[in-house]
Amino acid sequence: MFDDEMNTDQQPSARSKTAWMITFTDLVSLMLTFFVLLFSMSSLQMDEWDAMTDTLTQTLNPGKLTTVAAATAEFNIGTIFSRQATDLDYLSGVLERGVAEDDILKTSKIMLLDDRLVVALPGDLLFSPGQAVMPEEARAALFTLGSLLRNVGNQIGVNGHTDPRPPSPDGVYSSNWSLSVARAAAVANALRQSGYTDDILAFGYAASQFTQLPEIEPDRRAAMGRRVDIVIFPTVGGRN
Fold it and tell me: What is the tens place of the pLDDT at every residue in 201-228?
């Protein structure tokens, strides 16, 4: 019985020696919760965070290789600036010398305007009346012209024109507009076949610009109206 009393007296003393651990655990939990709340309410400085992570990365993994992503776009800054448009003043002189020996091209008119260079080709020498199919000698002439243009980076457009007279009812084309579009497309295709690889803008104007021609003999004015203009811009052309 004496032993039982001794055990009973020692049990509270043993519990009192370990009770502080419970209080300490609660205190640590509260402090951890407090610091988590402080961190969640603070604003993270991303530049300092990135600098710290980069420093740790280089320290813990100094042999890490940095991979550079390959360019996926068809054009980048290097390719854009490597292609330059040719000066129109210089190109005008080159074209005048290049077309002088051709029977068809020497009748064309080369005009250097403020924002473009225009090569006006006589439509009567390129096409039969009311047609948009070129004979072989006209194709050869455009091949010669295309060989001069295929090495330039300028944007090129082709504009078809007609005189005000309506097309023949028995003809292939029902309107001057469709005829002018077909002739512009035929000249553009001939330039492409000669080696010019950039996009070519082809438009048909019919007789909408006929009134801008000078007041000369009606037959000469009508012949000037039936022309195809090759327009060379000072900007770089686009690849198709």
Answer: 999 999 999 999 998 999 999 999 999 9
Where are the strands (E) in the chain, listed by range? 109-112, 117-122, 154-161, 200-206, 227-236
Element (H, E) at 53: helix 46-60
Distance of CA 158 to the CA centre of its chain: 21
Q: Which domain holds residue 17?
A: 2-60
Coil, helix or strand for 72? coil
The 10s digit of each residue's pLDDT in 229-239 is 999 999 887 76
Query: What's the number of domains the chain is made of?
Result: 2
CB 176 within 8 A of CB 167: yes
**Burial of residue 230, with CB atoms counted within 10 A of its CB: 0-12 exposed, 13-18 middle, 19 or more buried:** buried
Structure tokens at 77: 């800054």
Q: CA-to-CA distance for 15 and 22, rounded, in angstroms?
A: 11
- Asked if residues 59 and 53 have their Cβ atoms less than 8 Å apart, the reply is no
